[in-house]
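User: Predict structure, ligand iron/sulfur cluster.
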Amino acid sequence: MEKFVQKTFPHGVHFHDNKELSKEQAIEVMPLASDVFISVSQHIGAPSTPIVKAGDQVVKGQLIADAVGGLGSKVYASVCGEVVGIVKKVGAAGGMADHIHIKTSEQQDQVISLPALETKDKESVLNRIFEAGIVGMGGAGFPTNVKLKPAKPVDTLIINGAECEPYITCDYRLMLEKANEVIAGAKYLAMACGIEKVVFGIEANKMDCAQLFADLGADVVVLKKKYPQGAEKDLIVAVNGRRVPCGGLPMDVGVVVQNIATAYAAYEAVELDKPCYERLMTVSGRAINSTKNIIVANGTRYSDIIEYCGGLKDDVCKLISGGPMMGFAVVDTSISTTKTTGSLLALTAKETNLDKPTNCINCGRCAKACPMSLMPMYMDFYTLAGDYDTAVKYGVMNCFECGSCAYVCPARRQIVQSVRLCKKKLRERKK
Ligand code: SF4
Ligand code: SF4
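Assistant: Predicted complex:
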């Protein structure tokens, strides 16, 4: 057993991670639902343009929406079936988006692959990542091919195996069950970026993965179990001690960060010629009958996933897409999964904070918890007072909405909501 020194970042919060609910659930494939609704807005950037119309027969792996512009991403059919039409509905991140509705057919034996790569060099692998429609699958949805072409020199690729949000265990299962594939995918990501040094940052609650990866020859840094250890800037500080400046990007300190699921998708695209049309996600929480780690076809409705997991318990209080700290409350179970949907949580009242906010008591705990060393109490105060410029002075634009401040606040101040409100007002002002 290798002795690992645990590294970390300043501040942050500790809490029970609730991963025991799903971490033993091995990866399984969810049967296809009767219908899928595949969003054309699954990434940061211009929505993809549908290239199919109602009545078209499509095959799993077929391109159905093409990339638009420099930040575009391709979208592929996740099932064989007939296109019913293009419908506007609520997307996974809350806004309205066009979705390609496909009626799943009985026959599912046809799959289209990408053409086999003749050579695996920097250019061909980078292009394959674009062609496969891979985006940051840790939740950000930034087109991966763009992130692999940083405007500044970089020397280190960090693969983010922190998975620091409570409940979620899909990256854990991928690392445990597909270690060789994840390591191979990481090497392709590094190749596409022209980087030689690849480091896996793995949180200490996944020591079996850390040991497995080290045994397979990977460079592993074990990270203390602390939230938000997986946030890019905190991860970089912990792994190699470099500090990304305020308003800066990882490339400013010579680093590119990619997620475990993205590395796995790169492996599938390069080695198996498979475009990105399905992904592994965790279904967990104490209000779902059966927790699972399942591979789900892109565009599957949450209602179908819930049904496959045995339905909701009577004491369900809240559904969340993503983690409980940074995810989105689900108000409509007809919302469908995207390339970035890593989890669906069904929480009871005991697992949810329903307390009403009270006045700030100036205890300073929020500032102590903030990994960005911001002053959350003032950001909250000035935003609610309508003084957005002063809120900016206290760091609103450097806040990445991790929720640590709100978690520790005894007054239950809704600080993240204030930050989002302030950013929204500033965006509106620019229009
Ligand atoms: S102010 Fe922002 S970055 Fe700091 S703890 Fe709160 S949500 Fe996280
Ligand atoms: S933790 Fe809450 S109560 Fe304490 S200073 Fe921050 S906002 Fe105020």
